[in-house]
């Protein structure tokens, strides 16, 4: 089998300058899902018809070496014209050509496999060479969809669009899903006979079905397992529906693989995410990009994980954010923590309440549990970063690095002014401003001498001022 993706459309109903197939579902372009479905079928020869914003569409497939691109010169030529644009791809092919629209992201690879199997069964047991097999479904309300019209033997004789359907044809509940398996020699026999629509001037691929029936070729329909599979995405509301279907499919797959996902209707997990098993996801969580969560990881309510690796046993407490970072096994992040910009949090370390870590390397068993900012720093093993500690890494023009050794104690409300080095086993007294290197084992105290002026506090508080206190 060969496959042809039609991705040249304007998508005028999206009311967007961006090509329809470039609009994203779970942060992946719509056509990406169509391509992934075809890849799961192990199809070696794949063609893509491009037109509107062709170069942007091609970028989606960078790195894929089994693709051929064909340009539809007339952006309003219609779906049959798009297939003709790629005729060099299938003209001499003697097998079946899968034609699928780039705005059909909900079709499953298993469904197409079943369609192939049905074609073989018909050929083997009925001795009939199907000229085409179309994916279809029954909708209680088929308004707006092309109806599948059949003869008394159950063969498809035509597909009629809503606007062209008679009263009787509008009562048909079986609708066209826009996924076709064509026997290429028979497709070549009829496609150049398709006439432009008198209304739009487009060449519609559905007319191929009518012509095949007229010439005595056998066309049948194949029922989709899920109604959602035949839903095209023609406007932004349908895009939202498709996204929700795909989101729930991803979550269902992950749950069946041995992960616990609470209130799945509230959880966002993108298709490139990997959960290694026994992961627990609480409500309202978003896991995005190329993230990987090891066994036994728990992600608390409302947290966001993006392009990050969390090793086995990591706990992300509620309402924390981890972006582009690496959290090692047994570490705890949060609640309300923010780890970002290629930071590393070491084994069994704790980055706690309202702590932000930016572009830093946190060693093993480090504690920074409260209200701290650690930026552009390297922190050695078993160091304690007290509440309110700030690593001042920016002088208004340039950012600088801080290096803290092992077993260091940094007292609450200290200010560490980079660039700086603090040796192992150093002790920084609370409230200190440290702007010079501290050698290992030293005690550093840098704060003004305390003055106590008797009765002066009361005097200030009792001064007569408008409004008083």
Determine the oligomeric state from the structure. single chain
Regions with little confidence, pLDDT below 50 for 5+ residues: none
- Helix tally equals 10
Could you say what the CATH architecture of the largest domain is? Alpha-Beta Complex
Overall mean pLDDT stands at 94
CATH structural fold name of the largest domain: Spore Coat Polysaccharide Biosynthesis Protein SpsA, Chain A
Question: What does the model show?
Answer:
The protein has ten helices and 41 strands. With 469 residues, the chain is α/β, with parallel strands linked by helices. The protein folds into two domains: 2-230, Spore Coat Polysaccharide Biosynthesis Protein SpsA, Chain A; 259-444, 3 Solenoid (UDP N-Acetylglucosamine Acyltransferase, domain 1). The strands form eight sheets. The protein has a nine-stranded parallel β-sheet, with no helix packed on it. α7 (184-191) crosses α8 (206-214). The longest helix has 21 residues, at 236-256.
Any chance you could write out the topology, listing elements then pairs?
Layout: E1 2-7, E2 24-25, E3 28-29, H1 30-40, E4 46-50, H2 54-59, E5 67-71, H3 79-85, H4 87-90, E6 96-101, H5 109-126, E7 132-138, E8 147-150, E9 156-160, H6 167-170, E10 174-183, H7 184-191, H8 206-214, E11 219-223, H9 236-256, E12 260-261, E13 268-269, E14 274-275, E15 280-281, E16 286-288, E17 292-293, E18 298-299, E19 304-306, E20 309-310, E21 315-316, E22 321-323, E23 326-327, E24 332-333, E25 338-340, E26 344-345, E27 350-353, E28 356-358, E29 361-362, E30 367-370, E31 373-375, E32 377-379, E33 384-385, E34 390-392, E35 402-404, E36 409-410, E37 415-417, E38 420-422, E39 427-428, E40 433-434, E41 443-444, H10 456-461
Parallel strand pairs: 1-4, 1-6, 4-5, 7-11, 12-15, 13-16, 14-17, 15-18, 16-19, 17-20, 18-21, 19-22, 20-23, 21-24, 22-25, 23-26, 24-27, 25-28, 26-29, 27-30, 28-31, 29-32, 32-35, 33-36, 34-37, 35-38, 36-39, 37-40, 39-41
Antiparallel strand pairs: 2-3, 6-10, 7-10, 8-9
């Amino acid at each position: 089998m060969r496959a042809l993706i039609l991705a040249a459309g304007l998508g005028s109903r999206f009311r967007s300058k961006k090509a329809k197939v470039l609009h994203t579902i779970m942060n992946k372009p719509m056509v990406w899902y169509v391509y992934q479905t075809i890849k799961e079928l192990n199809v070696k020869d794949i063609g893509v018809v491009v037109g509107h914003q062709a170069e942007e569409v091609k970028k989606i497939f960078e790195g894929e070496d089994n693709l051929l691109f064909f340009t539809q010169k007339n952006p309003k030529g219609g779906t049959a014209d798009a297939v003709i644009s790629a005729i060099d791809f299938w003209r001499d092919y003697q097998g079946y050509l899968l034609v699928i629209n780039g705005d059909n992201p909900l079709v499953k690879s298993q469904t197409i496999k079943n369609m192939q199997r049905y074609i073989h069964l018909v050929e083997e047991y009925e001795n009939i060479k199907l000229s085409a097999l179309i994916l279809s479904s029954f909708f209680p309300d088929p308004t707006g969809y092309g109806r599948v019209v059949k003869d008394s033997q159950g063969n498809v004789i035509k597909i009629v669009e809503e606007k062209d359907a008679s009263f009787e044809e509008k009562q048909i509940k079986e609708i066209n899903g826009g996924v076709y398996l064509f026997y290429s020699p028979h497709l070549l026999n009829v496609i150049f006979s398709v006439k432009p629509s008198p209304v739009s001037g487009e060449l519609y691929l559905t007319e191929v079905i009518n012509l095949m029936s007229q010439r005595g070729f056998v066309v049948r329909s194949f029922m989709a397992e899920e109604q959602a599979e035949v839903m095209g995405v023609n406007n932004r509301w349908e895009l939202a529906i498709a996204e929700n279907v795909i989101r729930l499919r991803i979550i269902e797959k992950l749950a069946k693989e041995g992960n616990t996902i609470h209130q799945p209707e509230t959880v966002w997990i993108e298709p490139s995410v990997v959960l290694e098993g026994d992961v627990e996801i609480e409500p309202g969580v978003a896991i995005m990009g190329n993230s990987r969560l090891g066994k036994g990881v728990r992600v608390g309510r409302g947290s966001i994980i993006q392009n990050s690796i969390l090793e086995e046993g990591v706990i992300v407490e509620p309402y924390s954010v981890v972006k582009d970072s690496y959290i090692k096994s047994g570490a705890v992040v949060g609640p309300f923590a923010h780890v970002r910009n290629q930071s590393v949090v070491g084994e069994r370390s704790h980055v706690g309440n309202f702590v932000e870590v930016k572009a830093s390397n946190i060693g093993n068993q480090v504690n920074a549990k409260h209200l701290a900012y650690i930026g552009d720093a390297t922190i050695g093993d078993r160091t304690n970063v007290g509440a309110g500690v700030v690593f001042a890494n920016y002088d208004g023009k340039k950012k600088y690095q801080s290096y803290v050794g092992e077993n260091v104690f940094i007292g609450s409300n200290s200010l560490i002014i980079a660039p700086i080095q603090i040796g192992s086993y150093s002790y920084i007294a609370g409230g200190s401003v440290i702007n010079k290197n501290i050698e290992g084992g030293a005690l550093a105290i840098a704060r003004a001498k305390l003055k106590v002026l008797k009765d002066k506090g009361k005097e200030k508080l009792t001064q007569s001022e408008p409004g008083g206190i």
